[in-house]
Amino acid sequence: MTEMSTAPPQLENFRFYQRLRVRWAEVDMQKIVFNAHYLMYFDTAIADYWRTLALPYEEAMQELGGELFLKKSSVVHHVSARFDDMLDVAVQCQKIGHSSIVFQGAIYRGDDLLVTSELIYVFANPITQRSCQVPVALRQVLERFEAGQPVLTIKTGNWDDLGWDAMEIRIEVFVDEQLIALELENDEEDDSAFHAVAYNGLGQVVATGRLLKGQQGQGRIGRMAVKRVLRGSGQGAAVLAALKTEAIRRGDKELALHAQTSAQGFYERLGFKARGDVFDEVGLSHIEMFLTL
Question: Full-prediction pTM beyond 0.85?
């Protein structure tokens, strides 16, 4: 954990920060950000902090048998933010006590430090709201992240070893969320595919994908699924990287996949290019995408 310090924090000392632009509705009659919005900025950043840790907050707290309640929040204003400013809202876990977790926050506009904060949460029984010890598993997740260690464990292998966990997330995403028929989700190609499954620090399944052997040196990626509340925080990219590594190892010259058009931007950011026209697959719009290896 980072040692408590009275010195002004520097952005580079935070492993996590979120960028946002000040909206008109957040400015008061003095044409500066209304003071209450700074707490909203920090609260929003804390939510993304949990996503960055690959922790789906509600499910993670159920797994841990408790809930985090805000005990104290303090904000120190140094310089005011104004409409249309681009801000970096940084937070870090600074200290973990018996039942409390202390977060330090800071808001920057470029190199200028605008606001600092301290947020103290208490881990407690969600029904009685009585404090209890911070679970060892949660303590370890926070400490590992702040120490710069990976938040995910990627397991790769065959269907016999990973199929149960892969189907858990695939059913959640494709069947429950996207309403694809269950009988279309599991096919005979799973048995011959190379699978990758991502687990968070609590051992929860958060993402999966598979790699098939195509023709003429082509590898085909499919069944990419990421838990909805964690999308955009790196889990899908980590699974795709594991599949790409295997494709290179076995000598594939190209990776191809059928991407839902809603996910086209995700694959483009990872170097994939679209090929051909949009088509329908299981009732959803898809487009073929490829990556030369």
Answer: yes
